[in-house]
Amino acid sequence: MLKNFLDLCKKRRSIRKYLEKPVPRNLILKCIEASQLAPSAENKQPWRFIIIDDFEILSKFKKIAFSGIYSVTKWAFSAPVIIVVLAKLDFITHKLGALFQKTDFHYIDIGIACEHLVLQATELGLGSCYIGWFNYKNVRKFLKIPRSYKIVNLITLGFYDEKNYKFPNKKIRTIEKIVRFNESFK
């Protein structure tokens, strides 16, 4: 049982082996609802999600997304849900941010929304994992995604064997290594 937010953050891990158990849509939608609450530049909410949970479509999708040089991501074949995360690219706020600040704000916005999503999944007892290594062109073609959207990443989602899952040792840098008060890093 999670007692507080820090416990939730500590429990969230990148899960790469899922049970053969479908994820009820109401749980998936709770994760999406959490992402809706994320802040975004000028409240533009550039995130869009394509949820693939149909077994037949998912099987075809996995073959086109994780073949060839992308087969290192073959662990994703066990995931009962894959969420394709898109950025809507036609917001002037994001274009101006990229031009003047040299920052792609849609990536920041979507990163926050995705973290809300995976933290909610963790609270619901679901595992998740971000995927950046996939066949971008095949995914765009397979899902007929218009050019006004950028595919940012994929997220796997599903139940996993919490009791027997072997988590790799996660090395966390100490506070002293990552924080400076009132001075820069040397």
Give an overview in words.
The chain has about 190 residues and is of the alpha+beta class. The protein has a single domain (about 20-180), classed as NADH Oxidase (3-Layer(aba) Sandwich), CATH 3.40.109. The protein contains 7 helices and 4 strands. It has helices at about 5-10, 25-35, 55-65, 90-100, 105-125, 135-145, 175-180; strands at about 45-50, 80-90, 125-130, 150-160. Helix 2 (about 25-35) crosses helix 5 (about 105-125). The model has no long low-confidence stretch (mean pLDDT about 90).
Secondary structure elements and pairings:
Blueprint: H1 5-11, H2 25-36, E1 47-52, H3 55-65, E2 81-88, H4 92-101, H5 105-123, E3 127-131, H6 136-143, E4 149-158, H7 175-178
Antiparallel strand pairs: 1-2, 2-4, 3-4
CATH class: Alpha Beta
How many structural domains? 1
CATH homologous superfamily label: NADH Oxidase
**Secondary structural class:** alpha+beta
Give the CATH topology: NADH Oxidase
Q: How much helix, percentage-wise, in residues?
A: 25-40%
- Taking all Cα atoms into account, the compactness measure Rg is 18 Å
Beta-strand portion reads 15-25%
| Average predicted local confidence, pLDDT | 91
Span from first to last CA?
41 Å
